[in-house]
């Protein structure tokens, strides 16, 4: 997967040089405490694919799947040694910026800018809590706190990470934030529309197949314009949520050579993501 031939192909696509990835230097960040005025209890711990253990369909792959290798990190990883990350072979990284409208990761600048500084393609993601504030309000908060960077050849579109409610769901029965499928679809639509209005980008959607099909009623409304980032710590990315025939990104493990979660990105999708806005 990391052969010289594939690396040369990636360099041609990106026209910025070879990229890569690696390890964590600082200690793990402490769990956040509740904040006044309705703040959330553990946003440092909430991250893309956080409910992966319950959703895993089979054993994780023995080796990294084919695709462009990358990672996603949050405040839980603390400061990241991006030079080591690059040396270990990662070529893209997604960084958690915000959650609801009350949390902005204090590690976001080091993680997001650090990836850029060593030539790694980076993007930001928002962890959705739909029962705390409207989709538009959370999109605005995301854009205003790290999710609004313009495309520069090293920046990927922002991500809406929407999955099980981490504050009440412990067994898979309360995962939909108390919303009906129609309410959930409306919330997602408001977030995506506001994000597009503010940035010109179509956001990537990060989710689980089970969550999507249950909590949106299997909506196909967003599949045509919004790439899918699927979380499945099994040996295949599928089955995919209703509406998508292929994923753009696959989070396939929660640990490995890179800090945080391990991801791969489809080569043919990558150029399209980078070209959304320049």
Automatic annotation (TrEMBL):
Coiled coil: none annotated. Residues 1-31 form the signal peptide. Residues 32-63 are annotated as: Disordered. Keywords: Glycosidase, Hydrolase, Signal. Residues 48-63 have a biased composition (Low complexity). SUPFAM superfamilies: (Trans)glycosidases. Belongs to the glycosyl hydrolase 25 family. PANTHER family: LYSOZYME. This is GH25 family lysozyme. It comes from Actinoallomurus vinaceus.
């Amino acid at each position: 997967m990391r052969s010289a031939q594939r690396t040369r192909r990636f360099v041609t696509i990106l026209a910025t040089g070879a990229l890569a990835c690696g390890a964590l230097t600082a200690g793990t960040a402490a769990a956040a405490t509740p904040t006044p005025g309705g703040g959330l209890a553990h946003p440092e711990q909430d991250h893309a694919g956080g409910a992966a253990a319950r959703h895993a369909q089979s054993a994780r792959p023995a080796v990294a799947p084919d695709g462009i290798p990358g990672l996603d990190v949050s405040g839980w990883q603390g400061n990241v040694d991006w030079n080591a990350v690059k040396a270990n072979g990662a070529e893209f990284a997604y960084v958690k910026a915000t959650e609801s409208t009350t949390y902005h990761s204090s590690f976001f600048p080091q993680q997001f800018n650090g990836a850029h500084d060593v030539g790694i393609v980076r993007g930001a993601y928002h962890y959705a809590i739909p029962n705390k504030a409207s989709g538009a309000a959370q999109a605005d908060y995301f854009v205003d706190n790290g999710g609004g960077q313009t495309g520069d050849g090293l920046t990927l579109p922002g991500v809406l990470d929407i999955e099980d409610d981490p504050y009440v769901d412990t067994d898979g029965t309360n995962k939909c934030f108390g919303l009906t499928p129609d309410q959930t679809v409306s919330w997602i639509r408001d977030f995506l529309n506001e994000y597009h209005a503010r940035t010109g980008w179509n956001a990537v959607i990060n989710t689980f197949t089970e969550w999507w099909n249950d909590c949106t009623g299997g909506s196909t409304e967003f599949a045509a314009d919004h790439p899918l980032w699927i979380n499945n710590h099994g040996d295949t990315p599928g089955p995919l949520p209703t509406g998508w025939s292929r994923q753009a990104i696959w989070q396939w493990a929660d640990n490995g050579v890179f800090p945080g979660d391990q991801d791969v990105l489809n080569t043919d999708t990558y150029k399209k993501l980078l070209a959304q806005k320049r």
